[in-house]
Specification:
Length: about 475
C-alpha cells in the first residue's frame, strides 16, 4: 500500500516557514508475528510536507510496552558556528551525520563511536575510567539490541535531540542535549552518550542473568542497575569531554566555557528511567478520574540558582567564598548549577585560559557547577497518559500544567496528529504575540537575532500505554 505524507491539522494557522526538526514514530500494538520497514522517496524534499517517508509496520507477538507513539519537533533561535572539529573531527565528520537531521526513523546499525573515541582521541596515559567490558551483543539479546533498533534525531541551534527505539523489544531511548556557549558539548553527547549507555546496560543485563536469586530480587537489582548505568555514562562523558577540552584549549580557549544540559528518558517495558542535568524538564501527564484535567508531575529537578535547594548547596559548598552567587548567577556568569562541560567553572587551569573580563578573578574553590545528575524511576500505570520532554526554551513560555493541557486537548481533537510540533507552533504564536509580530514575521527573523524573542526549543512527546493510534511514522523537512 502506497504511503502518503499527511499535513498536520492544528487549531492555529501553520507558520509560513517549516520547523527545523519534526519526526514521529507510532507503534502498532496488535499481536502478529513479523515486522517490516518501508522507505518511499517523495518528489521534492524542499516542499513543505514532502521528503522521505519511512513507515515502520510492526506486527508483534504478545509483547508489553509502555509507549505507543512518539513525536518530536524543534525550532532554532541561536546562530551557531560550523562544527568546531573537536575530537580531531571525529564528532563532526563521522558520528553526527548518522543522526543529525534525519528524514525519519530508520534502522540503527551497530555504532563503534565509543571505540573510535577510545582509540583515536583519548591519550593512552590519561587516567579516565572506561566502562567494564561486556559480552558481544547478539541478535538474541533482548535489551538495547541494535539489530532491531530505529533511530531519529537532529539539531536546532545549539540543541541536539536523539531518539532510538525497538518496538519489538519494548524499549525507547530519548535524549535532549541543550548546549550553551557553543554546540561542542551537545554534539559530543549526541555522538557518544547512547552508545555508552547501551554498552553499560548490555553489561548489566548479562550480569543480572547470572543471579541465582528470586525473580523479585533480580528485578530490583536490574532497576537499580539501570540508574547506575545512566549515572556512570554521564560521569564517563564528563571525563572524556573535559579531557578533550584540555587537549585543545590552548588553540581554542573558548571551549572551556562550552557546556550542555542533559535530559535522558529510557522506557523499558513498564518502567521509565529519567536522568537530568540542568533545566530541561520531563513532565508526566497523569489522571485518575475521567473528565477531570490531567495532573502535571515534573519528573526532573531544575538545576539553576533560582532553585532554593540548589542555591543553598552552592553556598554551603563554598564557605570561604563571600560571593559564590551574584547578579543572579554563579560567579556572575551562569544560572545553571549542574551541567556537562563548562570547565572554567570546574577547574582553575581552565579558568586561567580565559583573558580579561572573561576570566573569573576570584575562583576560590571550584567546582561551582556540578556534574552529578538527578535520576528517578517510575512504573508506568494505566493512569499515566503521556510524557513531555523539553528543553528550557519550551518552559520560558508555558508552565508544566499548560503544556500538559495543550497536548491533551490536541490529542483529543487530532488523534493522528503531531503533538510535539503542535506545542512548538503554539510557542511560536505566543512568542510572536509577546513581541508584537505575526508568526510569519517572527519566523522571518534570522537565527541569532531571533534569540531576542525565544530560545532554541526542542520537544518530544511520548504517548504512554498500548492505545493504538496509527502504524505510520513520518517526518516533515
Amino acid at each position: 500500500m502506497r504511503n502518503v505524507v499527511r499535513k498536520l491539522s492544528v487549531d492555529i494557522p501553520m507558520p509560513a516557514r517549516e520547523l527545523n526538526v519534526s519526526f514521529g514514530y507510532q507503534c502498532n500494538r496488535t499481536s502478529y508475528s513479523s515486522s517490516s520497514l518501508v522507505e518511499e522517496e517523495l518528489d521534492d524534499p524542499n516542499t513543505l510536507g514532502e521528503g522521505v517517508l519511512m513507515t515502520w509496520h510492526s506486527e508483534l507477538k504478545t509483547r508489553s510496552s509502555s509507549f505507543s507513539c512518539l513525536s518530536g519537533a524543534a525550532l532554532s533561535a541561536n546562530a551557531t558556528l560550523a562544527n568546531t572539529k573537536i575530537c580531531n573531527g571525529i564528532i563532526g565528520d563521522e558520528i553526527l551525520p548518522s543522526i543529525d537531521s534525519p528524514n525519519s526513523f530508520r534502522r540503527l546499525s551497530s555504532s563503534p563511536s565509543l571505540s573510535r573515541l577510545d582509540l583515536e582521541i583519548l591519550d593512552t596515559e590519561a587516567k579516565i575510567s572506561k566502562p567494564r567490558s561486556a559480552p558481544a551483543r547478539s541478535e538474541s539479546s533482548s535489551f538495547l539490541n541494535a539489530v532491531d533498533a530505529q533511530t531519529a534525531g537532529g539539531a536546532a541551534g545549539e540543541d541536539r535531540v536523539q531518539a532510538v527505539c525497538s518496538e519489538e523489544n519494548g524499549w525507547l531511548f530519548c535524549g535532549i542535549y541543550d548546549g550553551f556557549n557553543g554546540r561542542d558539548a551537545a554534539d559530543f553527547l549526541a555522538g557518544t552518550l547512547y552508545d555508552s549507555i547501551a554498552c553499560s546496560l548490555h553489561n548489566l543485563e548479562w550480569r543480572s542473568k547470572e543471579l541465582q536469586s528470586s525473580l523479585s530480587s533480580e528485578a530490583e537489582f536490574f532497576q537499580r542497575g539501570v540508574i547506575d548505568c545512566l549515572k556512570d555514562a554521564i560521569a564517563l562523558a564528563e571525563s572524556k569531554f573535559l579531557h578533550m577540552v584540555e587537549q585543545e584549549m590552548e588553540d581554542r580557549p573558548d571551549l572551556v566555557s562550552v557546556g550542555s544540559c542533559v535530559l535522558v528518558a529510557l522506557l523499558y517495558m513498564s518502567d521509565i528511567y529519567i536522568l537530568n542535568l540542568g533545566d530541561s524538564r520531563a513532565i508526566l501527564a497523569t489522571g485518575v478520574k475521567e473528565g477531570k484535567p490531567l495532573m502535571a508531575v515534573q519528573l526532573t529537578e531544575t538545576h539553576t540558582v533560582d532553585n532554593e535547594s540548589e542555591q543553598m548547596k552552592v553556598v554551603a559548598d563554598h564557605p570561604n567564598d563571600p560571593r559564590p552567587i551574584y547578579n543572579g548567577r554563579l560567579k556572575g556568569k551562569l544560572k545553571l548549577t549542574r551541567a556537562l562541560g563548562v570547565g572554567y567553572l570546574k577547574e582553575s587551569k581552565m579558568n586561567d585560559m580565559l583573558m580579561g573580563i572573561l576570566r573569573i578573578q576570584n575562583l576560590c574553590s571550584p567546582p561551582y557547577v556540578y556534574s552529578e545528575p538527578f535520576t528517578i524511576s517510575h512504573r508506568v500505570s494505566d493512569n499515566d497518559h503521556f510524557i513531555i520532554l523539553g528543553s528550557d526554551g519550551l518552559f520560558d513560555f508555558f508552565s508544566n500544567d499548560e503544556v500538559v493541557q495543550l497536548v491533551h486537548f490536541f490529542i483529543q481533537q487530532n488523534p493522528s496528529g503531531d503533538p510535539a510540533k503542535h506545542l512548538v507552533e503554539r510557542l511560536v504564536q505566543r512568542a510572536a504575540d509577546s513581541a508584537g509580530f505575526s508568526t510569519e514575521e517572527l519566523l522571518t527573523v534570522p537565527v541569532g537575532r531571533r534569540r531576542k524573542y525565544h530560545d532554541d526549543v526542542t520537544v518530544i512527546v511520548i504517548i504512554l500505554g498500548n492505545k493504538q493510534r496509527t502504524s505510520t511514522a513520518s517526518t516533515s523537512l
